[in-house]
Specification:
By secondary structure, the protein is an alpha/beta fold. The chain contains 9 helices and 40 strands. The protein has a 20-stranded mixed β-sheet that branches. A 4-stranded antiparallel β-sheet has the order 12-14-18-17, with no helix packed on it. The chain starts with a strand and ends in an 8-residue tail after the last helix.
Length: 644
């Protein structure tokens, strides 16, 4: 082992490498004192250098392996033991000559290092001019190797030869440095109280580091600056800050599905929030912590700087002005340092790869088109200035499409609680609990309305597809000269009809499965009766499973029957009158169904009629605009007889 002092750590290691005649990478070191630049001088580095043992090196590699490879052992190799040198550290000792006696501390060797010898201690005592005590006492301390100071005898001090200490104070009165000067021949060593005494002579009463002083004296750090006292600097209080609980920057965030695929139409650009949701909160500024200098004088600290949490549009600030919550459902918009919640999301242009799919807790306005394969969903209304192509549009409120829908059989326009209004609808699926109002044409589409389906523009025709409405269906022309198959159903809520169809479908599937199981069971029963001896335990188990399956299906069929019966009763109770109006023509190929009556199939062109239900039969009467039907009907009641 060797202790080295140098201006830099590199310089210290180079000196040690030269001393041992070993490369730097085979050395280990301990920093006893880190070098620093001070206001009056530069503190050098002071390090202790020694060899690394194979065990220590392998322990270090294992620690590194745990961090880098998760403990795989890839960094470990037993052959490294042959490449490293053992870390051998000789034992050493310290002599302290105090007013109250002579003391010796002996430290044990490490590895194959050499023990302290009595002769070494005696030689050191002689160099220092200290009377040599009994060698046996010295040997006892060496044998103990406790590292603690043990008394060897009385002190016979030589006057004016004691060690000295010089104190230097930094300009800001926050640090005191001591430079220890070793004793002369026969002189005594410094003790902690000597240094404290000198500090107090300089009026230093705060931050005295007695432990560090004792350590430096024990390690004999002579002729180098040592920090022996340090004040506490004032600590500025933490500033107030705003913590945002929503995204305030629009950053594209792509998501993977369960199969690791990414839909690049889902850009997640909109930060939706709901009423009462916490948007941001402010942490309060903190008081500064006073400091103290070496003379125990207080040092004023600055308090943290406050800032204001300013509410934006659609937000509410708490009474203590520390929490900001959403006042409405909508999207977060960060503007001019304020969080706003907008209830309308506006797309200036088309919905495409640039905007991505849109899901918004509010209303959406699109000034362009909605391109193929994109989706927009809103909890409010949706208004589209252009056309909707092969896309999905869903809203809780009204959906207004100023141009129209060209869906190519894949567009879906769905409103849970609003009207759907469009210039035209072609090759699309349209569903609403309220009305569907179209200006020009509904062509080859599946339209379902809990209220009315009205096609009332200049052309205003319905051709192809299937239309279902609870109250009425109205158009100028229905069908086409080419006999396009067109289905109209009125009188029942389409949702209930769909639910009834699902019940019937599921019931029929259960009946089919039951019949199939019953057929297999009958085969097993016949086999058992004809040849009981060959009927195995496996056959018996299979038979029991079939019986259990049939029983389960019978219960399921019974449950469906109850659901169907309940739904039929409700549909009958909630059924509308149900009418079909056409001002000009209905062409062959049109099928009209009103509630549970037998359908009417148009076989010849019919002009200007109203189809309605009377005595469970579909009948016809001359066309009257639905808005005027009440008054006109009373005038014609005695004159006109309904047509079958």
């Amino acid at each position: 082992m060797v202790e080295v002092i140098g201006d830099t750590l590199d310089e210290c290691l180079k000196l040690a490498s030269k001393h041992f005649d070993k490369p730097i990478h085979e050395l280990e070191y301990e920093v006893l004192k880190r070098g620093k630049k001070k206001f009056l001088f530069t503190e050098p580095y002071h390090i202790r250098v020694f060899f690394a043992s194979p065990e220590d090196l392998l322990d270090d590699l294992k620690s590194l392996d745990d961090k880098l490879t998760g403990g795989s052992g890839k960094l470990m190799d037993s052959s490294l033991k042959d490449l490293v040198k053992p870390k051998d550290l000789d034992g050493y000792f310290r002599i302290k000559y105090y007013r109250h006696g002579l003391y010796l501390a002996a430290f044990p060797p490490i590895g194959s290092g050499k023990r302290v010898k009595v002769d070494d201690v005696i030689k050191k005592l002689q160099i220092r001019g200290i009377p040599v005590p009994d060698a046996n006492k010295i040997q006892e301390v060496i044998d103990a190797q406790s590292g603690e100071l043990e008394r060897l005898g009385d002190a016979k001090l030589k006057q004016f030869s004691e060690a000295q200490v010089k104190i230097d104070i930094s300009n800001d009165n926050m640090k005191a440095y001591a430079i220890f000067i070793p004793p002369k021949t026969g002189g005594r060593d410094l003790e902690i109280q000597d240094v404290v005494y000198e500090l107090k002579k300089e009026d230093i009463v705060y931050g005295i580091k007695e432990a560090e002083i004792g350590k430096a004296l024990m390690e004999e750090k002579y002729n180098e600056p040592v920090i022996v006292a340090m004040g506490d600097p004032p600590i500025k209080g933490a500033d107030a800050k705003i913590i945002y609980h929503v995204r305030i920057e629009k950053i594209v965030r792509l998501r993977e599905d369960s199969h690791g695929r990414v839909d690049y139409r889902d850009l997640n650009l909109i930060e939706n929030v709901v009423v009462g949701q916490l948007l941001a909160e402010k942490t309060l500024p903190e008081k500064g912590k006073y400091g103290r200098d070496l003379f125990n004088q207080p040092l004023e600290a600055k308090d943290g700087v406050d800032l204001q949490l300013i509410p934006g549009k659609g937000t509410i600030l708490s009474e203590d002005k520390t929490k900001l919550t959403a006042e409405v459902n909508g999207q977060v918009v960060f503007l001019d340092g304020k969080v706003n919640v907008e209830t309308v999301y506006r797309v200036n242009g088309d919905v495409n790869m640039k905007t991505g799919n849109i899901t918004f807790l509010g209303s959406i306005v699109v000034t362009g088109n909605i391109e193929d394969n994109f989706q927009i969903k809103a909890s409010g209304n949706i208004e589209v200035y252009g056309t909707v192509q092969k896309a999905v549009v869903e809203a809780d409120g009204d959906i207004i499409i100023r141009q129209g829908v060209t869906g190519r059989d894949e567009a879906k326009i769905i409103s849970s609680n609003g009207n759907i209004i469009a210039r035209f609808i072609q090759d699309a699926n349209v569903i609403t609990d309220k009305d569907v109002v179209v200006q020009e044409v509904i062509m080859n589409s599946q339209v379902s309305a809990g209220g009315k389906i009205i096609c009332n523009g200049k052309k205003a025709y319905i051709v192809g597809g299937s239309l279902r409405a609870a109250k009425l269906i109205q158009a100028k022309n229905i069908g086409s000269k080419s006999y396009t198959q067109t289905e109209l159903v009125v009188g029942h809520n389409p949702k209930l009809l769909k639910q009834m169809e699902d019940y019937q479908k599921n019931r029929n599937e259960s009946v089919f499965k039951k019949e199939k199981l019953q057929k297999t069971l009958n085969t097993l029963i016949a086999r058992k009766e004809s040849d009981p001896a060959s009927f195995t335990e496996e056959n018996k188990s299979h038979m029991q499973k079939l019986e259990a399956g049939i029983k389960k299906l019978e219960k399921r069929i019974g449950d469906y029957d109850k659901e169907i019966q309940t739904l039929e009763a409700y549909m009958e109770q909630s059924a509308q009158q149900g009418k079909v109006y056409f001002e000009k023509r209905m062409y062959p190929g049109v099928k009209v169904t009103i509630r549970n009556a037998d359908p009417f199939v148009c076989k010849n062109e019919i002009q200007s009629k109203i189809f309605f239900l009377e005595n469970d039969k579909i009948k016809q009467k001359p066309y009257v605009d639905p808005e005027n039907e009440g008054s006109e009907g009373r005038k014609r009641k005695s004159k006109a007889k309904p047509e079958e």
